[in-house]
Each structure stands twice: as structure tokens, then as C-alpha cells.
Amino acid sequence: MILLSKNVKGAFVFFKEMKISLFVALSSFLMLQGCFMQDSLPPATELALNEGFKNPLGFYDAIPSFSWKLPIGTIEQRGFHIVVASSPDLLPDKADLWDTDKVSSNQSLYVPYAGKPLSSRKKIYWQVRYWNEKDNPSQWSEIAKMELGLLQNKDWKAQWMGLDTRKDSIKGKNDIILHTPQQLRKRFEVKTTIVEARLYVSAKGVFKGYLNGEEISSDVMAPGWTPYQKRIESLTYDVTDLVREGENTLAFQLASGWHFGRMLWNKMIWGKKGSPQVLGQLELLYSDGTKQTIVSDESWKGSTKGPIRFAEIYDGETYDANYEMPGWTTSNFKDDTWDQVIAEEMSDSIQIRPKRHNTVKAKIKLPTQNIIHPQEGSAVIFDLEQNLVGVPKLKVPMKKGDTLKVRFSEMLAPDGSFYTDNYRSAKSTDHYIAAKDGVIDWHPTFTFHGFQYVELSGFDTSQTPEKDWVTGMVQYSDFDENGTFQSSHTKLNQLQSNIVWGLRGNFFDIPTDCPQRDERLGWTGDAQVFAPTSIFNADVHSFWNSWLQTLRESQFENGGIPFIAPDVLENGAVSSGWGDAAVIIPWEIYMRTGDISVLSENFQMMEGWVAHHKSATENYISKMNSYGDWLQPYQSEQSKNRGDTSKALIGTAFFAHAAHLTSKAAGILGLDAEKEMYQKLYKTVAQAFENEFFEKDGSVKNSKGTQTAYLLALNFELLSENKKELAKLQLLDKIKEADNHLRTGFLGTPLLPKVLDDMGNIDLMYDILLKETYPSWFYSINQGATTIWERWNSYSKLEGYNPQSMNSLNHYAYGAIGEWMYERIAGIKALEPGYKKIRIAPVPGGGLTSASASYDSPYGNIESSWKIDNSTFYLEVLVPPNTSALISIPSADAPSVLVNGKKVQEWKTIEVQESTEGFINLKVRPGPYQIESNFDL
Ligand code: BGC
Q1: Helix, coil or strand: residue 349
Q2: Angle of CA points 184, 185, 189, to nearest 5°
Q3: Cα of 513 to ligand 1 centre, how many Å?
Q4: Beta-carbon neighbour count of residue 197 at 10 Å?
Q5: What is the DSSP letter of 613?
Q6: Position in ligand 1 atom list of the atom nearest CA 641
Q7: Whose CA is nearest to atom 9 of ligand 1?
Q8: Residue 8's pLDDT band (boundaries 50, 70, 90)?
Q9: What is the dihedral of CA 92, 96, 102, 103, to 10 degrees?
Q10: pLDDT tens for each residue of 113-159
Q11: Is 629 in the pocket of ligand 1 (CB under 6 A)?
Q12: Is the separation of the CB atoms in 904 and 891 below 8 Å?
């Protein structure tokens, strides 16, 4: 876990290793170039499978693909050799599973396995070597490994098991059952020494596992959220070190989680029948080669008399220390009074499959910054000065028998009162009942909250509150952050921080709309809008691929895609711009990762969605329902949050765009007939769109000419050449009318920077971006935002919360601007899928004097960092091995350009390409570059 602390400027900073600096890169590049002269090149590093898994345990895919990175100093890969064996001793010469021999290829990503078939539990070990641009071979890499999980239902001997908690649980509104959490345990004997132990677990609900009193893992809310009626994920744990000779005890705590939670206003899609259950299978391998398996079945004991009396995602957790059962997870405990569990055979109808992305973990600890003592009452408020998602760690003095009440808030009302109305029906309150006097040390286990402020009441009031009573444990899916963005503008840096916190707060096993109120759902529209920005900031390749599986499983038979995945509505309804996540996200992931499997896995879903669009049209004009340009500012009252852009215009635009992307995907997959068919469809729909919605003079007809109407037409390339130019002028007029402010909601906002950029109106985009007044990104920052808000005006210092009940202060959609910040302010963009070809084209503007970004691409770290000093433009760039880059320098004066201290014309390895107005374009090979040129502001 990372500890965050505040720096002098007030922003939270990480204590973690900095990315490789350009200077280090330059020296190691030169050093390695030298050592490459010798005969054995340094090995490939960061060996990974599929979406970047390193040495995975319980892996999900029996036909994995292999990737590696080449050391800095390598220009290009000419060939590779992969060896795969069932034991590390067989490597590299006696690989018994797969030996590719030397393959002449520059592919260093996603090489598909084509060796002997692999099955559940199988372990593989692998190595790779490469040949560089001079066809010299490298040393073999270190050995990487992978172990498969249980891939099929038939691998399980275990049964679904648990207590019937329907009968003695609390009844909520509309008689829904709020199940009391349960404890489950089983004692078993281990005969002699074991060499290996694996625990496979899944649950209908969420679990924590224990072996001989030790927590099996720090996973939070495992196994996570999938369409439970079709697929539930399983996890694999290496518990070899926890098993001992003699008596052992395996135990689980089990709570409702999403499966039996009252998700989406008590719909209880999966929780109508039954009670939470766990599925556990512990497989032991003895030193003499014999095996023993302990499974969940009716021989287990269970109790609902544990200290977690209540746990619900929206409502919080109640812990009564009087119910503690010391030692219940160990063999030293009498469970005679416990009940016998009920066990049920596994059915084939629900697939139990290994989890295909990382579980949620507590990733960051955030200390309290400030204690506030309200005027009235004995409650005290702890301010973490950062809106976050997770749970509080509480170290609070209490008196025996007292109840500590823990409430949460995203922002106080301007009068200092504790505001919770925007949580709507989510009670989001924890309780702790003390069994003795003294300091408790506790955090809730089976719930999570979205908050900046924690209010405590019921503590020992004879003690003075201290900051260390409350620490924020920030929880999100366990991915690494892999991008950084910084500039000379403090508010732009705060915006970047807000975007990243929005990501942390809403990547909680699935991409959610918000993390705090009675929703926290996988809204598809929000997801498609934010996906590109998320990939810049975090390694979320597997996160998205995993959710795309959920999306596929949620697709209706008629090709429709629900608003939310997992679908907790089950009403068959669709919305344009939302269901389009099915097409846009696979395409975006492919472009950024180069992973073709994301297209092949999802192609059928894409086709289904395009067909669904088509079925909802008349003469190619959409009649599809739409949430529209959701939450567009200054919309007319009758638009009811959906913005003023016509639904038909939005639906038709997305129909055309979906056909266009599906055509491109077909092209990549080598499906030529489909490529042509969807291209034709795109063109036909675009023509219909233009005829229906655009006048001769390029203005919108038959509906309101909103900024978003123009943005959709221009960004999705739906207009003929002449009309396009006229529409651009109309858009500029609209922006001018709005005093250079945006008027866009969820759908239009991500398109605004792209369109203005393509039009060459970057200065205008800077102007809009740096606006301080409503509606703008900085407006929220000026009102104290530390995350991205749902509405452009969710809160103001003067008037407090927007009175609309739907008002989250942690909604990532408008954070979609992050993509442009990386791609244009700092200047890193993929020109070819996976960044095989990179464009480094920063465009200074808005009075910025510097900006920089780093991005850990599939080929390695890319850096672009510029500053302007004394009429000189300095640009530092790092281009990773096995790629190439096109660097655009904002200068018109080629002779003034110096690269690594030498005139650009003197470089044999740099091609000065045709330059565009005011820019000099250089085609470069991998390596570090320090560039200088004259720059007139
Ligand atoms: C959610 C959204 C979502 C929208 C659909 C809201 O309740 O929070 O972000 O996209 O509904 O219009």
C-alpha cells in the first residue's frame, strides 16, 4: 500500500519510485549501445501474458499470448524465440510444451501460444530471446511462469455452501432481505508434510478467507461483480505456507456484496432467492506425491452470531464487538453450538471461471488533514482533504457499551453542516459497538464509501480527537498507475489529479458511474467516454477486457446493449451513446494496446449492436432512445438532463460511427467482406445524417444547433467536404456565442478538444480548458473539487450543493479531457495500434511554459517533456525500443533545431519529413532525444 502525504503546494504526492528520467535513459542508452557491440545482448524484460499479467497464479486462459519488452538501446527486433516447458529445469534447451525456434518477426507483443494443449492447474515456465536490428541474438530472459486456475465447472468437487440466512435476517423496504453476514468453518487433518497447497474460491456474495487464523489475502469484496446468472469468478490462492501438519481450520466470512445487495433501488436481480454461499476447494499435494482435497460441503459448520451484524454496499456496516468469537478461524475453537450448513450441487448453468483481472485492494493510505469541531453536538468531523473511495481505518477511544456512529460526506454545506443528501437512499453509515473501554482498531470489511469527510459520534468524549483516529484506506482494482502528466499551470495539475482520483474512485472491480450514492453501477455511456483517458493513467487493459466480457454477456438477443453492465435493470432498454460502448471501447483498447484479441473477442458484439442501431431506424434516421448529451449545461427545462441535442441526431451519428469502427475492426481481423459492408453502411448513414440534419450553409436543421450536434458531425466524419468546412464555422460561432465556454454534456465533451484540434483551433481549446467560470473544469476546482463532478455545477462555495438529488462529486465522465492533455498538451499519441508508431506533437498554448507526460506503453516508457525558456523551445523525448516516432517541433526554422546537441541535418538516423505550417517533423528511431529550437511566442 502506498502512503500519500501532502506536499507544500497542498497536492497529494506518492512516495514511490520515479519513472526513469531522461538523463538516466540517455546514459544507459549510450552504455547499452556500446555493450551491444559485443556478442550477447541484454535480455528482454517484463515478460507478460495476455493483458500484461506477470507470473499469474490461477490464470484464466489456456491459450495465452506472450509479450516482452526490449532493453533500452535496442532499435528494432528482427526475430524472437520462445520456449515453454512444464518445469524450469527444461529451459531453454528441452522445452517440452512449445519451442518456436527463431521466428523472423518484429512482433514482441501478444504472440499466441501454439504448443501442447494446457488444462486446469497446469504450470508453465517460459523464456524468450530476441534478435536485434543487426540480427544479433540476445541472452535468454529470466524464466517467467504461469499457473492456470480451474477453467471449467467440472474441475470443482466443491459444493455451494452456507447457512439459510433468509429466515433470521433483517427485512428492508419492500420486504427485501438484508442478509446477516455469516461465519463458516471446517477442521481437517493433514497427515504429513505438504509441498503445495492451492485454495480455489468463489462466492455468491463476497468473502474473506482464513487458514489457521491467518487471512488468506488482502483482497477486498472478492470475487467481484459479473453477470452472476451466467458467470461468477473464482480466485486461486497459494496457501502452502499456511497449512501445517496435524489439525487445520479453513474458514470464511461471507456477506451479501453485489449478489445479494439491494443494487439499483432494491431490484435484487440475483438475490430474490437463496442466501449467500461460498464455493471452496483446498487442494493439498504431499511430499510423497499423494493428494488430498478439502471442499465446501455439508460437513461445514456455520454461524450468524459473529461481530459483523450487518453489511450492505450502499448502507454501510455494523460491527458489534460483543459478538466477537476469539479464535473462530483456528482449530482452537469449539463450534458445537454452530449450525450445520446447507450444501448444494454446482449446476452447469452458471460458469465458474478464473477472475480475469485484479481484485480490489486497499492501495493507498490517506491521513486526516484537519479536524473540525462543529458548534453543536458532540460529533467531530475529520477532513481528509481528498474525495476518495474505500473505508476509514478507525483508531478511536471508546467506552464499553457505546456505539460509534461513522457518517460520510463528500463536501460540507457552506454553513459547515454535514451533508449526506446526495447519497440519496444509501445510508452509507458504519457503526461500531464497543465491548470494553479502550482504543478500537477497526475498519469495515464488506462495504465501501465515497467521501472526503468522516463524522464520528459516540466515542469517548473525555479524549481529545486526534488526526490519527481516522485514516482513509483508498480501495480500487489492483492495477498500477502508468502515466504521469504535469505542467506549469497549477490548476491544470489539479485537474490531472482530479481525473486520477475519479479513476481510482470508480474502478472498483467494474467501471462505475459513481461510488457513493445508491447507484455505483456499470453505466455504459460513462465508460465509453472515459476509457481512453483511463488507459493513459493506469494499466487498465485487463480491467477493460474483463468488463467487455461482462458487456458481451449482457447483450440482449436482439443485439441491444443495456444501459448498465452487469445489467441490474433487465428491462431490455437501450440508449444511443451508451450501448455504443460495445464498439467504441474495444476499438480504443485495440488502438492503445495493439491487442487484436480485444477485437476478435468482441466483433460479434459490435456487429450485434450495429444491427440493433439499424433496426431502430427509419430510412437510416435513428428512432432509438437516448440519454442524450447528458447533463449539458444551460439546457432547456423540458430536456430533463438529456441536453438539447436531438435524440435522432445523436442516434444517427452513433449508428454511423459504430458502423465505421466495426468496418475498421473487420479490416484488422481480415474480414474483407464485412469491412466493405460496414464501410458502405457508414457512408449511407452519414449521407442520410447530412441530408436530415444539416442545411446548405452547414448549420443544423430540424433541431437545435448545439455545440454537441456539430461535434458529433465533425468528429464522426459524417459531412461532405464542403458542408464540413461550413459546419466548422457554425461551431465556432456557437462557441463564441457562449463566450468561449463549453456547452457540452457527457457525449459532447470528449469530442470538443479533438474537433477543435483537427480544425487547428488549439488556442481556442486552451481558452475553453483554462476558463475559470462556469461551465468549465476549473470552475469546479475553484469551488474546491478534488475529483471530477457529475455536473459542471455540482457545488459552489457560496450556495453549496446543486439542489438536484442526482449530484455526485465523483463521476469520471468529464475527466475525458485527460486524453487531450496527454496527447496534445504533452504530446504523446499512438499513430499505430499499441504505439508501434508514436506521434510526439506537443502544442504549447494557454500561456503554459512547460508540460510533460510519461506513459508506460506496451513497448516501454514513452516520455515527452517540453519547456519554453528565453525564446527557446526545449523538448525531451524518450522513444521505446521496437517502435518509431514522428516528432513535431513547433518551429518554422529547421536550421535552428538541435538534437542531442547536434544540428538536425547532421543526423543520419533522423529523417526530416515534410513540415506542416509552423512545425518541423522528424522521423526518429527509438532512443532519448533532447531537442532545442527557436520559439517565438
Ligand atoms: C448515472 C449516469 C448515467 C445516467 C444515464 C445516472 O444516474 O449516474 O452517470 O450515465 O444516469 O443517463
Answers
A1: coil
A2: 160
A3: 7
A4: 21
A5: H
A6: 12
A7: 513
A8: very low
A9: -140
A10: 999 999 999 999 999 999 999 999 999 999 999 999 999 999 999 99
A11: no
A12: no
Query: Alpha helix (H) ranges present in 704-770?
Result: 707-715, 721-737, 751-758, 762-769
Residue at 347: amino acid letter = S
Within the chain, what is the greatest distance between any pair of CA atoms? 87
pLDDT in tens, 560-573: 999 999 999 999 99
Which of 423, 523, 807 for a ligand 1 pocket mutation test, highest count of atoms within 8 Å of Cβ? 523
The grid cell for 683 is: 457512408
8-state DSSP, 63:
S
Residue that has been written with the C-alpha cell 470494553 in this structure:
436
523 CA distance to ligand 1 middle (Å) = 6
User: Which atom from ligand 1 is nearest to the alpha carbon of 806?
Assistant: 7
Ligand 1 mean position to 242 CA, how many Å? 45
Work out the end-to-end distance of the chain between its first and last CA atoms, rounded to an integer number of angstroms: 44
Neighbour count for residue 26 (Cβ, 10 Å): 18
Residue 24's pLDDT is 53
**E strands, 244-315, in order:** 246-255, 277-286, 291-295, 301-303, 308-312
Q: What's the rounded Cα separation, in Å, for the pair 215 and 229?
A: 29
- Of the candidates 184, 414, 375, 191, the residue with the CA atom closest to the CA atom of residue 276: 184
Per-residue cell: 128: 524468450
Q: Measure the CA–CA gap between 574 and 576, rounded to whole angstroms.
A: 7
Ligand 1 atom index nearest CA of 790: 9
Atom of ligand 1 nearest to the CA of 524: 10
Q: Which residues are catalytic?
A: 519, 790
Is 814 near ligand 1, meaning CB less than 6 Å away?
Answer: no
Q: What is the DSSP string of 787-829?
A: S--SSTTSEETTTEE-SSS---S---GGGGGHHHIIIIII-EE
Checking if the pLDDT of 33 tops 70, the result is no
Among residues 149, 151, 152, 143, the alpha carbon closest in space to that of 66 is found at 143
Residue with cell 452470531: 305
Residue 451 φ/ψ, nearest 5 degrees: -165, 160
Spell out a b/e string for 504-526, using b for 16 or more CB atoms within 10 Å of the CB, else e: bbbbbbbbbbbbbbbbbbbbbbb
The angle formed by the CA atoms of residues 567, 571 and 573, to the nearest 5 degrees, is 90
CA torsion angle 753 756 762 765 (round to 10) = -50
pLDDT at 506: 98
Query: Pairing relation of β-strands 144-148 and 57-59?
Result: parallel
Contacts of 161 (CB under 8 A, 6+ apart): 184, 277, 278, 279, 280, 296, 297, 298, 300, 341, 342, 343, 344
Handedness of CA 568, 573, 579, 582 (dihedral sign): positive
Q: Is the pLDDT of residue 65 over 90?
A: yes
Distance, CA of 866 to CA of 886 (rounded, Å): 16
Averaged pLDDT, 546-566 = 98
Position 20 scores a pLDDT of 46
Mutation probe of ligand 1 site: the residue of 263, 521, 630 with most atoms within 8 A of C-beta: 630
Bond before 92 cis per omega within 30 degrees: yes
Protein residue with its CA nearest to atom 12 in ligand 1: 627
Q: Virtual CA dihedral for 868, 873, 878, 883, nearest 10 degrees?
A: 130
Do 409 and 391 touch, CB atoms closer than 8 A?
no
> Which stretch of DSSP H or E encloses residue 686?
helix 672-693
Q: Give 603's DSSP letter.
A: H
Q: Which residues of 265-291 are buried (b: 16+ CB within 10 A; e: fewer)?
A: ebbbbbbeebbbbbbbbbbbeeeeeee
d(CA 304, CA 632) in angstroms, rounded, equals: 48
Write down the pTM of the prediction. 0.96
